[in-house]
Amino acid sequence: MPVEQFTPGSAAVGGVLIGSSVALLWLAAGRIAGISGILGDLLNPGGEDVVWRVAFLAGMIAAPWLYQLAGSVPPGGGPVVGSVLLAVAGGLVGFGTRLGNGCTSGHGVCGIARWSPRSLVATALFMVTAAGTVFVVRHVVGG
Fold it and tell me: What are the extents of the domains in the chain?
């Protein structure tokens, strides 16, 4: 998202909603709202707590549609790459989340809130890698 489109008000509201939902899931069910863990355990045969995992993921998928039904257009748009590249990228993200024992939402939002040393290191690595990627794409490759 270009800097010109930054909206601090909606970003703050979104942050409060994410933080509140993470805290609510932790307090009400004792569960961590890390997406890779929720999906990974759901795909595990014989896994437990299937109902809340399906409800959580269904809510994530349904939210943009409900937002649009309410009369607003979800921010963003469709993918700007082909389907094959999108599938490969998704597979790499899935592999990375399993390799890192969690995804950015799990480590960055939930893990840091619990002062998890592993999550603090993982999130620092995510941020350094993201900054390096932006630098290379903008200043080396010229994208």
Answer: 3-141
